[in-house]
Amino acid sequence: MRKWFTFVLCGVVVAAAFADTGTVQPFVADRVLVKFHDQFLPEGWRAGDLTKVHPAIAKLRPVGASYIVGIDVLVIDLKPGSDAPAAVRALAKHPDVEFAELDLIYEALWTPNDPLRPNQYGLGKIFAYDAWNIWRGDANFFTCVADTGIDHAHQDLSGKYAGGHDYVNNDTNPMDDHGHGTHCSGIAAAMTNNGIGIAGVDPLGRLKATKVLSSGGSGSTTNISNGITWAANNGCHTVSLSLGGGGFSNTMNNAVNYAWNAGCVVVAAAGNNGNTTVVYPAGYANALAVASTTSTDARSSFSSYGSWVQVAAPGSSIRSTLRNNTYGDLSGTSMACPHVAGMATWLYSKLIVNPAQRNVVHAAQIRQIIEDTADPVGTFVTKGRVNMNRAIRAIVINGDVNGDGCVDDRDLAMVLDAYGDSGPNRADLNNTGIVDDADLAIVLNYFGVGCTSN
Fold first, then answer.
1. Is 297 one of the catalytic residues?
2. Domain boundaries 117-395, corresponding CATH code
3. What residues does each domain of the chain span?
4. What is the pLDDT of residues 260-280, one digit of tens each?
5. Is there a catalytic annotation at residue 334?
6. What is the pLDDT of residues 328-348, one digit of tens each?
7. Which of 152, 334, 349, 436 is catalytic?
8. What does each C-alpha distance from 310 to 242, 258, 337, 377 come to in angstroms?
9. Residues 114, 138, 147, 436: which is the catalytic one?
10. Catalytic residue, candidates 54, 180, 183, 237
């Protein structure tokens, strides 16, 4: 069963169909498509003679008609202001009619133009493409990669870099002198749809970085803990920790708890030991541990696993950014981790409108959603391989522009205020690149959903 809704905005008739799934389906106003059973097809229509009108169509008093050659579908244009859904319902009841339907409008699916994107199988495995048609992130939300630093001059990262700190050299320039951190940064949030290199998991979210590992790829508890707390104190929404080794550290555990309590989702690589030995920081209670999977969703042979690891993400042969404007493939749970970290920040930007609203309750919501919407891939993790499409659908309430859980006049005001604007915009609910009548239709149709009466 469908619900139908039409309204007039600025003198233009706008229409949308709403399926039981909650999907908004705009259609061409004042037009219906109809197919008669072969024996009842009006004489002459196949030959292009549209003057012989079937009685069921004559009742609609059409102002025009055409014919789709080869499939015997008639395109009937009604008078302006006609009730096309009612016409469809009437035609569908006629015994001579095989089917009748609206002329639905379809949109091009968003596929980034980054030339190396086809080499990034991980995006498909976590259903990023489907998810991006719902939400592409927000530039006011940040993933902090605590690693060997970041090559912030890289052509695919420079436009996303928003600051950081170097705890190895004690300065504010976390330039990568190893390559590992640059690779992880690109996975999480490389510049996307810029015609260069790769695409990041979070197309619009930005990056901050703390250099906590040396040019040799190692770092102390002190540096790593400082890098984590810096992220919490500098507006980051997710901390990505593609590092591990050593035993339990109270200091580092306290740093993870500090970031978590500040509202940061802490994501950590499970380790590359290929066994069930707990690795830290992934093993801390408030860190989300990430194992590595292959292009077939199997556990990567090197990946640590077990009941202490919650989720998995692609980590075998992952294409991403490397130093000096280059790209290459690396493998490890280090590559799986930023898939989830970028996803967490991307989800965060849909959950809340104001980045400063970051808090532990929201962080817990994001982590829970990531875990609960993961696809089962085996017993080597407790939840599964992450799924961006399922995760974003767990957050989205159609029409809830400001993300407060209630579709009300504030959401309507946001759409009206942004009406006609192009480019990334929260009010662009159907992700067509412009705030228009279809977005307004969504808010009006779902008005009141999620709201409680006073």
1. no
2. 3.40.50.200
3. 27-104, 117-395, 397-454
4. 999 999 999 999 999 999 999
5. yes
6. 999 999 999 999 999 999 999
7. 334
8. 15, 21, 12, 12
9. 147
10. 180
